[in-house]
Design goal:
Elements (H helix, E strand, L loop, with lengths): L2 E6 L4 E6 L6 E5 L7 E4 L5 E5 L5 E6 L5 E5 L8 E3 L5 E8 L2 E8 L4 E7 L5 E6 L5 E6 L6 E5 L4 E5 L8 E6 L5 E6 L3 E6 L5 E6 L3 E2 L5 E8 L14 H8 L2 E6 L4 E2 L16 E6 L5 E6 L5 E6 L4 E7 L6 E4 L6 E4 L4 E6 L2 E6 L10 E4 L5 E5 L4 E5 L6
Parallel strand pairs: 21-27
Antiparallel strand pairs: 1-2, 2-3, 4-5, 5-6, 6-7, 8-9, 9-10, 10-11, 12-13, 13-14, 14-15, 16-17, 17-18, 18-19, 20-23, 21-22, 24-25, 25-26, 26-27, 28-29, 29-30, 30-31, 32-33, 33-34
Length: about 400
């Protein structure tokens, strides 16, 4: 966290500034090769730039000013993945109409392993948090997930079904013991790390019938304002609360019918299947979103392998993310509120601010004390007060 990187893709330029030394700065110009992506290496001393048409990845060193090249990176959703300890990098490659994966050592960018994958059209790669297994999955037209060891051996292949749209999202549990696979058939399948076989599958029906599942429903309530306190014009803080509807959660009586949307079958990328998956940091919970039921977040108890809670929102879920330190989920739905769930219950928080701040994405700080909320044009940082234990 000592440098700031700024990428200007249209100009093909990356600039870097140091927070400690204001006079130090760095400018990388990719020139005619162009620039479509730029990211830090885990050590914060190298910058990886992907050129236009994915011709190569250029690795620039800030310390030695040396340059390394990685050829033929594949243009796919998740083509570069680092292990959590930052020691290794996997890159998906495409050459001669075949998919390959190269594994590099991040300290000196030497090639450790290069192997071809049994995929038709590789879509993404992701390391298990312990860095021992690399998951490689195929395009949605082919249900296939392959698990490779660090030395390039194929450990296992998993296919749930054929002749239908396949994998939409995956998530590793923080302990690397479980791999959750979200599919277009509205199910999540959990694989174990010993046999790589399916332990269970979670369905996402439109009706919640189990009496042990808690369903929190968001309801709007109009703000009550004492008329004697009103001055005209009203103070700014009061004005924003006057016109913003507040919301709270009610516990619904089971059975509950959730709002279900039938996807348009004749369009590309249909709004169906499990689009978002995330494990809590303590491995106890899994949060999922079924795109057919866009207003609901499903929270599963991983120890009991059962549905624990469903949050039914008034608007469609844009994003959710777990607090990195405790089982607390933050959810945003494109309005000016943040919703928090923890095993203790649910709360809706209005973001104070002028105008309409529509939160479309959020990101926790690693300490869990603060988070960044993003709208299309603005962002704000919100700080959470810690309860004294």
């Amino acid at each position: 966290s000592l440098f700031i990187l700024c990428a200007m893709y249209k100009r093909g330029i990356v600039q870097v500034w140091s927070l400690e030394q204001p006079d130090w700065h760095c400018k990388i110009d990719e020139g005619s090769a162009g620039l479509v992506a730029s990211c830090w290496s885990p050590d914060g001393r190298h910058i990886l730039n992907t050129t236009e048409f994915h011709l190569r990845i250029t690795v620039w060193s800030l310390c030695t000013k040396s340059v390394s090249y990685i050829k033929y990176p594949k243009a796919c959703q998740q083509g570069v993945a680092f292990t959590k300890d930052g020691r290794y990098m996997a890159v998906a490659e495409r050459r001669d109409c075949k998919d390959f994966v190269s594994i590099f050592v991040c300290s000196d960018w030497q090639l450790l392993r290069h192997f071809d994958t049994e995929t038709q059209d590789l879509f993404g790669i992701e390391w298990a948090p312990n860095g021992c297994v690399l998951a490689v999955w195929d395009t949605c037209l082919e249900y296939k997930i392959l698990l490779y060891s660090l030395d390039g051996r194929l450990l296992s292949t998993y296919r749930a079904y054929e002749w239908s749209l396949g994998i939409k999202s995956i998530a590793w549990s923080p302990s690397s013991q479980f791999l959750a696979i979200g599919s277009y058939d509205e199910k999540v399948r959990i694989l174990n790390h010993v046999t790589w076989k399916k332990i269970t599958e979670f369905e996402h029906p439109a009706t919640i019938a189990n009496t042990k599942t808690i369903v929190y429903k968001e309801v709007e309530k109009s703000p009550s304002v004492e008329t004697e306190r009103l001055s005209f014009p009203p103070p700014r803080a009061l004005a924003s609360s006057l016109f913003s509807t507040q919301s709270k959660y009610d516990v619904s009586q089971v059975p509950v019918s959730l709002q279900y949307i039938k996807p348009a079958a004749d369009r590309a990328n249909p709004k169906m299947g499990i689009g978002m998956l995330a494990f809590s940091p303590d491995n106890c919970f899994l949060a999922t979103k079924n795109d057919n039921i866009p207003n609901a977040v499903w929270i599963w108890d991983i120890q009991k392998l059962k549905l624990f809670v469903v949050l039914e929102q008034l608007c469609a879920i844009q994003s959710f993310q777990w607090d990195p330190r405790q089982p607390r989920l933050a959810v945003c739905t494109g309005n000016s509120k943040v919703y928090f769930w923890s095993p203790a219950g649910c709360v809706s928080v209005q973001v104070p601010g002028e105008g309409d701040f529509q939160i479309v994405s959020l990101s926790w700080h690693a300490s869990g004390d603060s988070m960044v909320l993003l709208s299309k044009e603005n962002f704000c940082v919100c700080y959470l007060e810690r309860e004294e234990v």
